[in-house]
Amino acid sequence: MDQTVRAVQTKAHGIHEPSIGEGQNVLDHTTRKWKTLFLPPKLSRSLFSFVIEHVEGELPQQPLIDEAAVNRLDHVVLKTSDANGFVTIFRDVLDIRLALDKTMDGSKSRVLFFRLNKTTIEVIEQNNNGSGDKLWGLAWAVKSISATRDRLLTDGVEVTSIKRDLKENTLVATVKSHTHKVPTLIIEHTA
Is 161 contained in some domain? Predict the structure, then answer.
């Protein structure tokens, strides 16, 4: 965290010292401590963002006991009218790996994929999108998309049929209700 703070402070103004946090597990009374650096709106492009470092204790790893459960956040999708601004902040300031920078043939869209651990931050630039930056969608990884879809349908959630995604070895379904108007996918990686 200290290295991140120093790096960000040399490239941006308005960076404060990290906040210290502490929590206690109610089951076994173990304590975790962490540092949180809240990014100022100018640096985060007005998207609420923070950096967190766990400094003591561990998050308990829960075994995936239900193949119909969400496993993890696969990717988050942001829309922008300024992809270069995201490259400057995510790659150059925050040192997040830019895995793909591609202009889509036949359209006026540019797509950036930043990789952070097992999560992808996908940024879609559309020049006709003058509304600034915004969260546009979430994709949740699941072990069994058919089991997850069946569970959601049973719970009264509208979900499209399962289809092959553009990315090889992936199946997707779109969650159509209960998302607070945030486009939401469930995704299974088959390989």
Answer: yes
Q: Does the pTM of the predicted model rise above 0.85?
A: no
Which residue, 122, 164, 161, 119, is CA-closest to 140? 119
Classify residue 100 as exposed, middle or buried by CB count within 10 Å of its CB (0-12, 13-18, 19+): exposed
The whole domain housing 100 covers: 70-189
pLDDT in tens, 64-88: 678 888 989 999 999 998 899 889 8
Residue 43 phi/psi, 5-degree rounding, is: -75, -35
Residue 64 in contact with residue 71, Cβ under 8 Å? yes
Q: Are residues 84 and 49 in the same domain?
A: no
**Strand bridging mode 184-189 / 170-175:** antiparallel
Residues 140, 93, single domain; the answer is yes
